[in-house]
Amino acid sequence: MTFAARDLAKSSAFFIAIRRLATELTAMFDENPRLMSIFASHQRWLMAQLGLSLHYGRDPGDPAKGLYAGRFVANAVEHGIASRNTAAAFIQEMLAYRFARHSDNPPDNRMRPLEPTDVAVQSVVKWLYAHLAILDHLDGGARAAKLAADPALFARLQPAIAQGILESPEVRNPGETFNLFTWANSGGVVMDGFIAMIEDFDPDAPRTLIGPISSTDICQRYMISKTHLKRLMNKAAAMGSLGFETISGRNTLWLSQGFVEEYLIYQAEKFAIIDAVFHRETASAEPVKRLTAVP
Length: 295
Hints:
The chain is mainly alpha-helical. It is built from 15 helices and seven strands. The strands form three sheets. A three-stranded antiparallel beta sheet has the order 4-6-5. A two-stranded parallel sheet has the order 1-7. Helix 9 packs across helix 15.
């Protein structure tokens, strides 16, 4: 059975699960900061999903329907993800860092389709596997095992997942503070890092304590300048989304209830999209599952 986003967002079990995901995402960033920087801002993450969907969703019978620089740029503009210049620069960056390459077997000498390299694909497969494993943890399913047993399943899942993400207002625009962080370079992974630090969470509390943080450590780990990090933190503080209070003589970071709720809404909608696509591609339609919150 598939999960409903509204039920996931209300579940304490789901919060524990996404805190675990946040820890895994920051660890993935540590393993390959250059590659994972693609996912460190919402705009770049959406462009990566779009590019992969054009590649895996191509029609073998229509060579013009693959991943081409011009087609990618046009789609990025059409979906409101980026300007033509930003989308074109993203493609060039992916080629320069060898996360994408021109196909060795073009359908026509006049056409130059692009394709993701193995290292890029492996990273996104790992990202998807982590999400499926968390869904399995919530209901005892075997989604991650199915993906591991059938790697070709990723090619069937990815275009539909990307389409769901690109068409979801909750994923594209979950809230003002979330957008502040995720539309900034490395801001998304900084936010994941904050969520991963939460130890005690009360959804009814106006503030959630994170603990003391080191700006120097954050900047070094997530490849973000001190000036950029300070700007993000100051803007979020002005919005009432985070702040510091003195506990035992130390400045302790807190996140507002609204900030955490935005993160939860985003994650719940994303997980519901992934779950629905997985079941649609691997099994017959099943009823929506209602997840009961763990006390």
